[in-house]
Amino acid sequence: MRKASSISALLFLGFVRSPSSKLRFNALRSYCDRTSPSSIKVPGPLTQYKSLVEQGKLQHDPNQEAVAFQLEKLLGRLEQYEKEMAEYHERLAKWSKERENERRRLLMEEAESQQKDDVWTSVTNQRNKFVQRWFSRKKPENVEPGVGKWVSYLNRERKLDSVVGRRPTAPPAPKGLYIYGNVGSGKTMLMDMFYSATEGIVKHRKRYHFHEAMLKINEQMHQIWKNQVEEKSLHSSLSNWVMNLPFDSRVKEWVAAEERYKQEVQMKNILPAVADKFIIDWQADQKGGSILCFDEIQTVDVFAIVALSGIVSRLLSNGTVLVATSNRAPKDLNQDGMQREIFQKFVNKMGEHCENVLIGSEIDYRRVLAQSQRSMGQVHYFWPSDSIALEKFEKKWHEVTNQVGGQITSSTIRVMFGRTLEVPESSNGVARFTFEYLCGRPVGAADYIAVAENYHTVFISGIPMMSMRIRDKARRFITLVDELYNHHCRLFCSAASSIDELFQGTEEGALFDLESFQFETETEGSKLRRDVLAEGSVSSGGAPTGIVSMLSGQEEMFAFRRAVSRLIEMQTPVYLEGVHSLHPYFQRQRREFENISAGNIQPQLAF
């Protein structure tokens, strides 16, 4: 029975070729952890786009084709860029090693001087105690602690610059693209076509949605602060060489203090440290170029502006190629005027390194796609909440869980910041939740990312029409839809209304501030939400005590229009065909089968 269920699961997942089907890879969407066999070369974005138009899966749009053409040109420049960046990283590694060796040599010279001064000072103190007391009495009382170390640190850095030279400059990278336009105009689709085509060309590649990026920044900042407090890196690095120096304990303490101060100076400027780990896996070879594909750039609060400015600017300065999407042009991102100076530097930096490209179409192509490619017999959105629709929803749940051939159980999945989330019902990559469970509690993007990464198919029941009374739940639901869409999940819904009416409001009023759920300036007790995220804690119950919206009505419109548009696209055949090849769950399974030739998959290799 186990073997039979395993075979049915494999057929459902698309890894066994049945006589009447072919293993298909949809090029519409791809993600940073997408891994395909090295022998398969993904065509460029323009080729992908034209192919989908020829197949009738996309309606031709001159604006989209123009952007695909520009992305294709950028792709053509990446091979030479990768070689130049590999050579640059070799120079950088050599420079870093020489600088560290020279820095330690200078430190040893200063330590020897300290040792001699200590001997001389000991004799002098015995002979001239009166003079010593006089000088100590004349010492200024308002000198800030650490000024001496700061001067010493700066002098040492200047000497290093003169001896070893300044940090090598990264070669000029090809200009990236900042693609902006209306909801459903094809921004994300085109960016993902480009991203999939860079595999095997550029070594270091990452693709983030806004929520995921902000959470990763918070997580890495939290980890750096944690390491700083615990001084793990300090003890591991200092104990190996400082304590073995040929000096007395007092001089060793001085050397340790100088090293500690250097690390403290570096830690104070935390965003560059986060940026350096944002794309490149530091356990792997660091040589080569880097690409960041950033979906839905937003500036919903001060933290987002400061974090994005510091990290993206650092990456661009170090040669990273940026391809980003947004609903707005860069200059219009910060309509509330928060941190104007920092924001303007950010915009200027992006202007230097990216071409701004408008997709000028007013058409929501997700709707066009849904109308032209209705999935016959494949209903995924059940409404209204009557007995007939609920019965069909239950029938679909049993049908899908029988297809994957697993037992329905409760489980626990890991969430960022060391937290966990209980999953009431799940089976072989399929999970079921109620709306209240996912959106009626103090959870957020981190939890939704965990769900999306672990489950390729998600059932959600009891979705109500959104109103002012459940505004926070509406925000959470929009964030949930974003993450399920970004990870290419298959979604089944049981709702009180049609998709188009879901966010229209009720007699209680319309909806507001939908864009800002996860990272708005919202307090939980006395802490800002971003502080709570950085500390990795979530309140155990109760709703947030206060909300300060920082967004205009236009942003609210973008938020619920995007959610409606994505819910519509998630019902289409072209989206559903991509689930088997693009969802992280299947990608993990595919990696396990990479060394097994097609058609020789053994039945006992179950999921």
TrEMBL record:
InterPro entries: ATPase_AFG1-like, P-loop_NTPase
Family: Belongs to the AFG1 ATPase family.
One cellular component term from this protein's GO annotations in UniProt: mitochondrion
UniProt protein name: Lactation elevated protein 1
Keyword Magnesium attributed: no
Presence of the UniProt keyword Coiled coil in the record: yes
Keyword terms, alphabetized: ATP-binding, Coiled coil, Nucleotide-binding
Source organism superkingdom: Eukaryota
UniProt-recorded Gene Ontology molecular function terms: ATP binding; ATP hydrolysis activity
Gene3D superfamilies: P-loop containing nucleotide triphosphate hydrolases
NCBIfam families, alphabetized: ZapE
Coiled coil: 64-117
PANTHER family tied to this protein: AFG1-LIKE ATPASE (PTHR12169:SF6), ATPASE N2B (PTHR12169)
Taxon lineage: Eukaryota, Viridiplantae, Streptophyta, Embryophyta, Tracheophyta
Pfam families in UniProt: AFG1_ATPase
Annotated organism of origin: Prunus yedoensis var. nudiflora
Regions that span the bilayer: none
